[in-house]
Amino acid sequence: MPGAVLPPAHALARPGAVVGRDRHPGADAADAVYSGGASESVSIRLGLLEDVERSESEHLDLRVFVGSRSASIGSSDLSDAALGELAERAVAMARTAPEDPYAGLAAEELLSRGPFPDLDLSDPHEPTPEELREQALAAEDAARAVAGVTNSEGGSASASKRAFALATSHGFAGAYGGTGRALSASVIAGEGAGMQRDYAWRSAHHGEDLISPDEIGKLAGERTVARLNPGRLKSGSMPVVFDPRVGGSLVGHFAGAISGSAIARRSSFLLDKEGEQIFAPGITITDDPLRPRGLISRPFDGEGLPTARRNLVEDGRITGWLMDSAAARQLGRAPTGHAVRGHGGAPGVSPSNLHLAAGGVTVAELIADIEDGVLVTELIGHGVNGVTGDYSRGASGFRIVRGEIAGPVAEFTVAGNLIEMFAHLSVANDLEWHRSVNVPTIRIDGMTVAGD
Question: How many Cα atoms are found within 13 Å in the side-chain-facing hemisphere of 151?
């Protein structure tokens, strides 16, 4: 793999140095975030090498406070001279910024003191470019071998490393790293106007947690061929079943609506519904940042607070909001360890590894009583209103007729309101565990389908 990503212990020296340096220009408090990464990917198309991409990056973001004023600034130049200038500029910017009574570092007494848990996020084996090429070729070959596949958009394999470090002027210092491995294949079936495309993709921290390239390719090919000659749906109200690869988006909409910042702005469709029965009894949604090898696992949050497993929904009821320190101050609450950092600016809020607990019935049992419905396998567009909960997405998938999966359908829209959708949500027992949001097959009765 190109380049050398700093080990966590060395990565921590970068933000630690600039946080110490900022005290000289006159900041009252500061934090700094370092992120570094390197990746390599190989793409194959029609059996031939199409592309090899390599990338490396390092970035440091500094946030300083002068009283209740703050400013953030970042740089990819990490030389001593550049970091010294960065601190001076940040303080000058903060002095002219508007006051924010809620801004500030996390309370010192709440900081995580370590030792931080080992979440097993790094694969010791680094695949060579030749290994990546072989994996990409095998995935595409398996997809093209499926009867009915007529063309290919390619197979790909990639490997990456990353490091993250956070240091604050009031005593927090922590870092962690991880690796990434990914495989994908995308192919085409049919000819002319009847062509259909689909794909299969997996990612993990460890290569051994991926399914094989042959399985990836076969899944991509079978999905594509199954979409040939789609029919149209008649408009009406009917049960809609969401395949696990698209059902996680519903949990994502829920997580966004319980963000403390959205609640503080009064811009969430779940405002004033804390503790209420939003889902059916028995429904549980869990956030687990400490899951070993989880795609979004993290030993501490973006403000240096400890992370912990937490049920966001218990027996159908919302247990509370996801809050960073600023939202917590505004709402008179305690932060929940869900702060995340990007390039520049104040922390945001995000869950980690989410899952919707499995139900007690098989998929066949879940759909057995559906006389006329639809299984959604692809969603298109972004028609979700986070303030009202109104939901409308383009979709494709398969008809459900008398409890059985029937032929493919396309070019229809599924619509409803998320509060009503959550209330009518039920789940099968086929929970999958290879995504950042893991869900079983989901059924929602009474949705509006707009087709012919």
Answer: 9
pLDDT in tens, 106-134: 999 999 988 999 999 999 999 999 999 99
- The series of mean pLDDT values per 10 residues for the chain, 452 residues long, is 64 84 76 95 97 94 94 91 88 94 96 94 96 98 98 98 95 95 98 93 98 98 97 96 97 97 96 96 98 97 97 98 97 97 87 98 98 97 94 97 96 97 98 96 97 88
The CA radius of gyration of the chain, in Å to the nearest whole number, is 24
Is the separation of the CB atoms in 138 and 183 below 8 Å? Answer: no
By DSSP bridging, strand 354-356 and strand 437-438 are parallel
State the Cα–Cα distance between residues 323 and 333, nearest whole angstrom: 8
CA geometry: angle 386, 392, 397, nearest 5 deg: 130
Task: Decide: 322 and 351 in contact? Cβ < 8 Å.
Answer: yes
Kindly write down the DSSP assignment for every residue of 296-311, as one continuous string.
Answer: T--SB-TTS-B---EE
Q: 59 has which bridge partners?
A: 35
Tens digits of residue pLDDT in 76-111: 998 888 888 888 899 999 999 999 999 999 999 999
Q: SS3 for 134? A: helix
Return the sign of the alpha-carbon dihedral for residues 206, 430, 382, 269: negative
Annotate 196-226 with DSSP letters as a single string. Answer: EEEEEEEEESSGGGSPPHHHHHHHHHHHHHH
DSSP state of 267: -
Q: What are phi and psi of 397, to 5 degrees?
A: 170, -135
Regarding pTM above 0.90, the answer is: yes
Please say whether the beta carbons of 369 and 401 come within 8 A: no
Length of the chain: 452
Peptide bond before residue 115 is cis, with ω within 30 degrees of 0:
yes
Q: How would you label 42-72 residue by residue, b for 16+ Cβ within 10 Å and e otherwise? A: bbbbeeeebeeeeeeebbbbbbbbbeebbbb
